[in-house]
Design goal:
single chain; elongated; about 575 residues; three-stranded antiparallel sheet; about 50% helix; disordered C terminus; 25 helices; alpha/beta
């Protein structure tokens, strides 16, 4: 557009300028991908003056713009313009003709489609991000919202694009209130790329697209950084995992919801009530259970919500210092989380005297067996009193195996061990399993019979079985940025499909999209966590054109594939409320 020098200078700087409205009430919009200034006036000249005053409110800013404008060569045939400085230093612009400049943006429909893709990538990435440490969760949120804001600016803040971006921002805000990873100011309406990168310690950026790419690169670096495991440092301490992760997580959630509030809704603005020492011990127990079950959590989003509620509690200056330490991604227990979880339960059970008789005593004894090793329990019971103040030892010694629930061999075995230890037996003679007792005599017992554990399918295996029942055979393509023969073999075995593998190098994307568009595959598993945005869009459009099931599996882990396939096929991934409340 060849017109007045200030407008030409702004166009050279990358701004677009548009006029809208009826005569007598004109709106001028001066914008670039990262900021927008609006001015209103009776005509185009006054509307532009108003927008320019907002864009350059200081004397030095106006002087720099005028200097740049004065250096712009006047093009032949351009409109006659006169700039007259006003007493308040605001440039006064006399325009003979100010037609709306051709902005040449991409088709709005394509931009809105890209925003839908961003929303889909968010949903696909949530299960894995829920299990990550807070710094990586914040980078995920920053990358997602930055992609959306870049598209919103590309659409010149079109109402539909702004609504779509707002919906993504609200979803991410809810996630932050659920996971409680810390501040992500890019979600705020007045956020800028500079402040967003500065907050996360990233290299400075002036455009939202640069922020997204920088955050994604940093995320990739942290995920691959040894010995970090999704930002956690405790991988070695997770062995051996709990035999029943659902039970551990359900117990932890039960404690959290009773003492802190429901995890399925974001916390309110009211500060949590003060906690008693017994409450703090229970929450430490819950934190240890959650950390122990991280690698085998059957429902990552529920796990993330539970540990997020504990983070919120610590952020509100409630909870013990030990609770904060148990939530620290850098904390590594010694020798393992198995031992740490048992120690938390030991401290908790130690505060509870045994009931005097009846079913409550059996429940107490069962819980105590799960929490404290035999020698420690025997030593305590020799001196402990019951709820009524009577000596506990005679009561425990009077319990017979016939008094215990029928068929519970583990409970009967533990009772025999306890009686032997309380009457002078040795721990080495009483123990029948190395899993029940370490060399220090402190290992907690929390397992089922080995044969039963080995025969029970994992949560992911149950999901794969449901997927295979609904889609028993499929020509499938897995798209990633790297080869992974082990993952391919595992998925083929779990699904019973033949899976073709393809690496989405830039020079191959068109060929991959072409094969998908021709209907070569029934299912495409796309590891979008390793792909750039344009690759995901190209593959998704090709799949849509051929009615191919396109499944975003984030970073492609087997558990993520199972859950993503179930989501796309409308298959339940939980095992019922009874499993959540098990234990």
């Amino acid at each position: 557009m060849e017109t007045h020098p200030i407008i030409k200078a702004l166009l050279r700087f990358g701004y677009s300028i548009e006029w809208h409205g009826e005569p007598g009430s004109r709106l001028c919009i001066v914008s670039d991908p990262d900021e927008t200034f609006e001015g209103r006036g009776a005509d185009d000249r006054k509307a532009f003056e108003d927008a320019l005053a907002r864009l350059a409110p200081s004397k030095i800013a106006r002087a720099l713009i005028e200097r740049a404008a004065s250096q712009m060569p006047r093009a032949a045939g351009s409109a006659e313009v006169q700039v007259t400085p006003r007493p308040d230093m605001t440039p006064r612009i006399e325009l003979e003709h100010t037609p709306a400049p051709p902005s040449g943006p991409r088709d709005l429909k394509a931009i809105l489609s890209d925003l839908q893709t961003v929303a889909a990538r968010v949903e696909a990435g949530i299960p894995e991000a829920a299990l990550m440490a807070p710094p990586l969760q914040k980078l995920h949120v920053l990358a997602w919202i930055s992609r959306a804001r870049a598209l919103e600016h590309e659409a010149n803040r079109n109402r539909s694009a702004s609504d779509a971006t707002g919906a993504i921002a609200r979803r991410l805000t809810t996630l932050c209130k659920t996971w409680w990873p810390g501040s992500v100011r890019a979600l705020q309406l007045d956020a800028t790329p500079e402040r967003a990168t500065r907050e996360q310690g990233l290299p400075p950026a002036t455009k939202w697209l640069d922020v997204a790419e920088t955050a994604e690169a940093r995320l990739e670096q942290l995920i691959a950084e040894p010995p970090s495991d999704d930002g956690w440092r405790d991988t070695a301490a997770l062995a051996a995992p709990p035999d029943d992760a659902s039970r551990e997580i359900a117990l932890a959630i039960r404690i959290i919801e009773r003492l802190v509030g429901p995890i399925d809704t974001p916390p309110g603005n009211d500060a949590p009530r003060p906690l008693a020492s017994n409450d703090e011990l229970q929450l430490e127990d819950a934190a240890a259970r959650l950390r122990w079950a991280r690698h085998v959590a059957p429902d990552p989003e529920r796990w993330g919500a539970a540990i997020g509620r504990l983070r919120w509690l610590v952020a509100q200056k409630r909870g013990s210092q030990r609770l904060a330490r148990l939530l620290d991604p850098g904390f590594v227990p010694r020798p393992s989380w198995d031992h740490e979880a048992g120690a938390a339960r030991s401290r908790l059970v130690a505060l509870t005297p045994p009931p005097d008789s009846g079913p409550e005593l059996m429940k107490w004894l069962t819980a105590t067996f799960d929490a404290i090793d035999g020698p420690t329990l025997a030593s305590r019971l020799r001196e402990q009193k019951t709820v009524s103040g009577a000596p506990a030892a005679p009561l425990i010694l009077s319990i017979q195996e016939a008094d215990l629930p029928a068929g519970d061999r583990r409970l009967r075995r533990r009772l025999r061990q306890l009686h032997a230890l309380m009457t002078g037996g040795k721990a080495g003679e009483a123990a029948t399993s190395t899993q029940e007792m370490t060399s220090t005599g402190e290992q907690p017992v929390l397992h089922v019979d080995d044969e039963s554990a080995a025969a029970r399918p994992t949560h992911d295996e149950r999901i794969f079985t449901r997927v295979r029942a609904k889609l028993p055979d499929a020509a499938a393509l897995f798209v990633s940025n790297r080869e992974d023969p082990m993952l391919r073999e595992r998925l083929e075995k779990a699904l019973g499909w033949q899976i073709e593998w393809s690496t989405a190098e830039p020079r191959r994307v068109a060929a991959i999209a072409g094969a998908i568009g021709r209907g070569k595959y029934r299912v495409v598993l796309s590891a979008t966590g390793f792909q750039d945005h344009s690759t995901d869009i190209a593959l998704a459009r090709a799949a849509q054109s051929s009615n191919t099931l396109y499944v975003r599996v984030n970073r492609g882990r087997a558990a993520a594939c199972a859950r993503a396939l179930a989501r796309e096929l409308g298959i339940r991934t939980d095992d019922g409320e009874e499993e959540r409340a098990a234990g």
